[in-house]
Structures are given as C-alpha cells and as structure tokens.
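Batch 3, record 17
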Amino acid sequence: MSRAWRRGPAPRRVVGTFLALLIGVLGASVTGCGTTGTSTVTGSVGGSPGPTGTTQVTGSASAVDSHAPAVRVVQPWVAATTPERPTATGAFAQLVNDADQPARLVGARAASAGTVEVHETVPGPDGPVMQPKVGGITIPAHGSVTLAPGGDHIMLMDLDRPLQPGDEVTLTLLLTGDAFGSAQVRVQAPVKAFTGADEHYHAPAGTPMPSMSSMSMPMSTAPTVPAES
Amino acid sequence: MTGQLPRRVVSRRQLLTSAAAGAAGLGVGVGLGDRFGNPGSPAPTPVQPDGVATRGTRSADTSAAADQSTGTIDPHGAHQAGIAQPVPDALTLCALDLRDGVGRDALGRLLRVWSEDIRALSGGLPPTGDPAPELTGQPAGLTVTVGVGPRLVSRVHPPGGWPDLPSLPPMRHDSLRAELCGGDLLVQVGAQEALPVWHAVRRLTVDAAPFARVRWMQRGFWRHGAAGAPDAVGRNLMGQVDGTANPVPGTTVFDRTVWVSDGPEWLREGTMVVIRRIRMDLDAWDRLSRPDQEAVIGRTLVDGAPLGGQVGDPLPLTARAPDGRLVIPPDAHARLAHPSTNGGVRIYRRGVNYDDGPDATGRPDLGLLFVSFQASVDRQLLPILRRLDRSDALNTWTTTTASSMFAILPGFTPDSWLGERLLA
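Prediction for the assembled complex:
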C-alpha cells in the first residue's frame, strides 16, 4: 500500500470562503477510557488490543502503559462527495488527548482513497486555501482538536467511488506521541451530506477562487441519491 | 470536560453514544446504562388490577420526570423511545415521502444516518455535519420515534408485509386534508422544551433530504398538572382532563395494548400509531353551559371525575339517576370510548394540543393531535373510532381534518440500526 501521506511541496487547494467561515466545533467531550483495564475502547490509542468489533488498535505495545490515557476519536464523519467533485472529500472528528504529553495526527489511510493527507486551511491571497499540514496536527496534552470543514481536516483523494450519505468509511489515523510512541487508530466514519462544502481542487499552481464579492452564497440544494436500478 | 466512565466492550456506535456525558455535565462517572436510565418504572400510582390508571397521575415518578426534563433518554432498547415516556411539553410530528429512485439500499443508508443522528441528539450532542452545533444544548428529555408508512413497506416488501389495515376507512365526520395525511416515513420528536425539538427535526429532515422530502409537519404542546393531582395527565384545549384511564407504561396491560408480539418479524416489539388531527370549534363549545359540556364527555371539568363518581372511580356505566336516566349519557364520549363498550379493546393515547392560528377564512385551526399507539389498529382502534363516529355527542364540536397510520419500528441497539430488520 502506498504511503497514505507525503511530505514536501504539495498542490494547494482553494476553499470557498463560505466554507472557511464554518468552523464546526463538535463540542462535547467524551468518557475516559480503559479504566477497567480490561480492554481498550475502539477508536482510541493505549492499552491492550481491543475486543472484537469493527475497529482495532495497534501500536508499540511496549511503549504503552495499559492505564495510560489515550487519544480518543469522537464522532468521526466524512462529507459526502458531490457530482461536481466525486473523487475527493474531507474527513472530520474530534481528537481528544488525555495524556500528559502532546500527540500528533501525522497521517491517515482509507481503503477507498488512493491518497490521504492531513490538511490545514490557511488564509490565502484570494481566499482560504487548503494545504497539507507540515508536521501534522498537534493535539495538546489534556486537550483536544476538532477536525472540521473550514479548519484542519483529513483529505481523502483519488476515491475509487463517490461517497453517499449513509455509507461508511474505515479510517485509520496515524498518531505519534511521547506517551505511546506511534500508533494507528481505526474507526468507522459515517458519510453525511454537508451542504456547506464549497471547495475546488485546482492544478498544482493553485488557481485562486473567484473573489468574495463575485461569489454568491451557495444555496443548499439537497444532494439527491442516484436512482437505484 | 471529560470523565472516566467504566469501560465495557464498545463498538464505534457505542463510542459515539458514550460521548454523551459531556458539556452539560450530566452525571459523569456513571456507566452507560445508568446514563441512559430510562424512566420507565411506573410510579406508585393507584391502578386497577388490570393496569389502567384510575387517577390522572403521571406514568413515571417525580425523579424520573425530572430526569426527563433536564437530562437524557436512552434511545436504545427493545422498543423505541418516545412511546412509554410521558407526553412531553413539546411534540412535533413530521411525515416524509421518499424521493423517486430511493430503494432498499438508499433507505438503509437513510435509516443508518438517522440512527446516528438520534444517538447524538438524544445524548445532547450535535449530529455530525451540523453547521450550527451551538444550537445543541440540554436535550431536555428528547426522544425521537421513527415509523414507516404502507407505501414504503410495499416498496421494500419485507416478509409479512404491512400488518394491519391498509388505511383507516373514512369516517362520516371527517373532513380530511390530503396534504396532511399519510407519508412514507414518520418522525415523532418530543422534549420538555421547544428548541431541542426544533433542532432535532431540522437535523433529521436535512440529513434525510437526499432521500426524502417533508410531506407535512404538525406541532403540538402539552402541560402536565402537578404530580398526584387529578389533572396530572394534563388538559386539552376544551379544558378537559385528557388521559385518564390510559394504560400505564410498565404494566402488562400496557405491553399487551401497545407492543406488536405476533405478525411480521420486522415489526415485533414495534407498534402501530394513528395520528388524527381533531379540530375543535371552541367558539361554539364556549356557548354551552358547563353541565352540558360535562354531559357531552361524561366527566366533570374540574377534576375529570366521572359524572356521579369521585376522582379515580371507574366509569359508572350502568348507574341511573332517580328519574331513570343513565348518569353517564348514552352518547357521552367517555362511555363510547370505554373498553367495555368496545369488546374490551384498549388503546394508548399520547396526544398533544395544537393551535396553528386562523385558517384562510379567519377561523381558529386548533384542537388535539390525537396520537394513539396500539398493537393493531384494526382490532383495537377501529372499533372505537367507528362507535365514536356513529354516536359521539362530541362530534358536534370536533372534526377530524387529517388522519395517518404508520408502523413504528422496533427498537435498536448500539450495534444495530433502526429498520435493520425491515430491510434484512
């Protein structure tokens, strides 16, 4: 399998300003983990391998204290693709770090995506711009970060099929941290329509979006489901 | 703020559900099962041996009621939430029609999306993709209940098919508005506050938009009287105590009345719901004398006691006045709806008041959103409706303007989704 993420210069992607204004804070916090010491919750790092189920935890077990706090992935989700851009979309979640040391999201994988990158959204000369985040996303000790449209997120590209609301994507998040070394967290992320999405991928030179004044507020036309045969 | 909950085997779905401790600070430190403690245990309510409340008391004790008003109701279980819980102060009923081309696969995706949304909303979390998650606050006892209509069931054709009447036959006193009748999907959303209900309906309908469009929406309100008071069940807009002699959740009578125990496998532990929009002519009603109003119903207005009896007494159906006339008039609503008048059948009523303002001619459009749950509409509700349609004195002041029937899906667990057995 090719590396899910790459360093170095990368194409710049331009994001519509409307999207940039939507910093969705998904808010609520989560339970602790591993307190019983028996098994690790799916969707978190730390502790012994988890129970049967749809997710797994792998990592440098020797670096892991089974009672150590962990990084938890809360409410993961993926935005449905649109007919205008059927091969790329964003994945989001709240990442909660209960350790005493910071952790970093350095990459991710998804079976249906040929390329997955960790992205940030930064101001650009003609509007917000998405680009790979060098060094990944830092999750502060005893803190959290929210991957959301318009902010930091995981970009799934070269999708082998459009993603429709109600589909599920298996996401593997690659994390590093002094508390546990390196680890992978696998979660099932549901696909949800997100009508606020308004982003375009352009050639590596990074063609800017039209200026704000020339762009009308996108009306949320509900994406429709293709008719089933 | 995070908390440390005892850990047990959880799937992704449970992870999401377990995230509901949260910002509202609701009892962090209890297990998942405790968190979603379902206030289903009945109160120390005086009940007849057959499990029917004899007084207008709430069907849950005070602490459970408080839990409902400020906290969370577990959406998981053998049955969906929003049926055994007391009537909430705010209730919205919303019907949707599937878009063309939406078949089994797409419907499954919609129901899985809704299942996740319901988990989040019930726990006081914004559903994923909510562009205004700040609208999420205290869930205030939010429940969401999902049903399917006959056309959807025929489209999906599960084994056993539609288990009941294809539709309610028209009643003579009906004046139905087709645009408020029927639908492929129903969501019933209730809470102790209006904004959580609105927010949940909004998220559910937006997330459904790729699959279905809203057909109609009917909103209602309710208020319970003081716990233990004769009007604890609440009052309708005619001022009548409404809900006396309702089966009590948690009792055998309730279970037998409401839950489907035979019939198609996809509906077991579900139920059937009928929603009837009963419009009241309050201007004419207000011109009646109080004794005349009480004779129409067969109960006093002040406390819902049966005429000729005390609060909590069974209806004295055979009692006669000294002049030989029946104390409960032959056409009194309470007599005609009584189980012993209808071969022993019962229904479970969970209706709310509505007032949508004046209609096009300036007359108030208000009344009761009558919501009735029963295992079989054909066997349990239809006989009562026919009898009322034929003889009820109340018909002079009421007209049913919409009528719908849905099959309420069985419950779901953290590892399953609503309607999974329908689409199996």
